[in-house]
Amino acid sequence: MRTEQPVPLPIRLEDYAPPAFRVEAVRLELDLQPSATRVRARLELRRDGGAAAPLVLDGVRLKLLAASVDGRTLAPADYTQDAETLTIPGVPDAFVLETEVQIDPQGNTALEGLYMSGGRFCTQCEAEGFRKITFFPDRPDVLTRYTVRLEADASTYPRLLSNGNLVAQGRLDGDRHFAVWNDPFPKPCYLFAAVAGELDELADSFVTLSGREVRLSIYVDPGQSARAEYAMDALKRAMRFDETAFGREYDLDLFMIVAVRDFNFGAMENKGLNIFNSSLLLADPETATDADYERIESVVAHEYFHNWTGNRITCRDWFQLCLKEGLTVFRDQAFSAQERGAAVQRIKDVRALRTRQFAEDAGPLAHPVRPSSYLKIDNFYTATIYEKGAEIIRMLSILLGEADFRRGLDLYFDRWDGTATTVEAFLACFAETSGRDLSSFMTWYEQPGTPRLAIEALYDEAAEVLDLTLRQTSSGGPDRPGKPLPIPVKLGLLDGEGAAQAFRLPGADAPTREATLVLDGAEMRVRLEGVARLPVLSALRNFSAPVVLGADAPPREGYVLLAADPDLFNRWEAGQALARELILARVRGQPDEVNEARFAEALGHALQDEAADNAFKALLLELPGEADLASALAPHADPTLIHIAREALRACIAVHLSELLTGLHGALQSGDDFSPEAAGAGRRALRIAALDMLVADPHAANQARASGHFDAAANMTDAMGGLSALSQIGGAPFDAALAAFYTRWKSEPLVVDKWFAVQARAPGEETVGRVLGLTAHPAFDPRTPNRLRALVVGFSVANPFRFHAPDGAGYRFLADQVLSTDAFNPTLAARLVGPLGDHGRYRSALADQMRGQLERIVGHTGLSRNVAELAVKALGV
Ligand code: B3K
Ligand code: ZN
Fold it and tell me: Is 303 assigned a catalytic role?
């Protein structure tokens, strides 16, 4: 492997040492010019560690112009500078360091540090971007107060924004102006932000529970402020939720969000000045889908919630990343559950967890929620840290109960406010307030891999007892045994008719209809008493733990659960399990047509359940995804067979339920104005899900229905629903719709992204060629992450059928994109590698080609550390 720099040693958790110097205050002056920005930094430093240690600061691609210690200019002999650090020996215990550097925001294509997007200056410092702005101890446990002076051309950059409060502003000679910002809250440098440019402001205000008024400002491209109204509304709902559900109030007098088009990921929680990818902020009914609205609501909340979980209390080191991310995802999921319905939200969260995190945990990129070593921390913003991290917090709340969980969290906020801390310190708060021993719980953070849970049930009718044996096999990652984990298993019993059955737990007098057992060893036996009728077990309700539950219950039980489980998650789960078995039977070449018809009928009943909501029914209609089916067939999965089998079951359902689905599609049409709330979104989702199923049987009437849906669409949700349905049919109607769509929306970048993505996802055999062709389309700009992801991730992640083309063309395409992107944006390039790491699931002819492309990447000259780390790991050697 030939990387851009010598291969570095991994950074290891066990090597953590506290910083040698504290920064007591910092003043930054940014004299903004697109290709030659001057950054002057004044750091008040105080020694914290051993007396002899030199001062070592991080700094990358900084042209050092001047440096002084306590006003004494340093000569080149007084310091050493290499590609990543500035070292000054012989410094006193307390002193002022001033540096002046020059940087090139315009030439910064990695979009990390200070860069330009759409003619504006903006920053992205997490995880280690601040070192590209100035020399500094760029680590999260160095917290300090910032005063920031920005200076720029007044006519080109009328808005000058940074964290905290605006304390001064004014005009200067020529066309220059300045603004000075002060952030009273100590923060690590990864939360620093600055923005300069022409922006419209959408302003509002929020009165906190204690009566303080906070000004809320969302800054967007000129003319776009109406598109920020939904984000503003979501922000106010999130602020209220954090007060009522978690007792957390906002602290500054001002909260700002800025939308930028060029952003490496979703959004960033900089203190008081969140920066968002415009795709996660801007929405109106014409250009955004319900899914976009939902994402905006949840990401606005997520970044806002970081103010307490991440900003007020931050991470001691980057190994503790889940401390802020897992906890904040848990909090945003709780908010979305309130806004969108708890069951529907839980199903969506679990679906995402399984597809992304379980797959990651089963492959060569598996890592613990708290990793113990890394080369590039950017590579660890993963589904494991975020989503499994959130599941761990959810389990903690189940194990402790709501009241003890809340007490522990309150103690955490009190005790650690204003500091940088660890997962251990977090758990200690819960152990202390609940009096429980949580030492075995720590294993969830330290052990990779998804535990498997098996439940054996033996019913004795005469004695009315049900003997349960719960067993876990926890692996420490691929091919490694693991320690048992504490697993909360929520369960209930139904009878054969679907009525809930009461039972008694060991030692309990009163019967119950639901209980949570905690399996905290390899095996546990529990006897449930008072079980009057042959039971149907509904286990792991609401997905009470992130495990794979072995399914050997007979299909009969699945039908009972699908029809009647009061736990909606398990009702949905039963449908998924039945569908999975039917698809796998087809993959094996043994279609079970009798049960396919039975399944279609059961789905039909569920769709007619007046008590269930539309969003839930839409989820019932979505069969398990092709990637998840591939996991079930690992290591022999054949994506072509899976696609064909899944489509066959969909076609069977479409034929069987033709009347019902057609009826739903017609009846759910509404002439009302678009409103993004859950009820309207659910109605549209079910209508589109019905259409989507119908086109699996693409006769002329269904084709016409899809074209009609697209042509009549009065909002982007329906336009994309129609276009997606047409993409399944392919041919002339799809091409015509694509052309019309592009003509109408070509000046709206966020919509053009969708146009690229829908083509990348299309199942037609021309897709690989189409995707290759689209890289030469005039609207394809790989330097804009949203556009690149729309095409490349849309294809490699969302279209397993065509990505895994037997001739390897999909893999070659992805490897080419990784390499070309790596040359200008390593973080983004590294995020594309993942699908090639899934080779462990696929039949050997495919797996060999996937590894071949990884080897090609690894052998490339000048590879970034980001891509090198991931590609080497993905190879799994
Ligand atoms: N904390 C940021 C992610 C930063 C990613 C840096 N490579 C957004 C979030 O999780 O809220
Ligand atoms: Zn986050």
Answer: yes
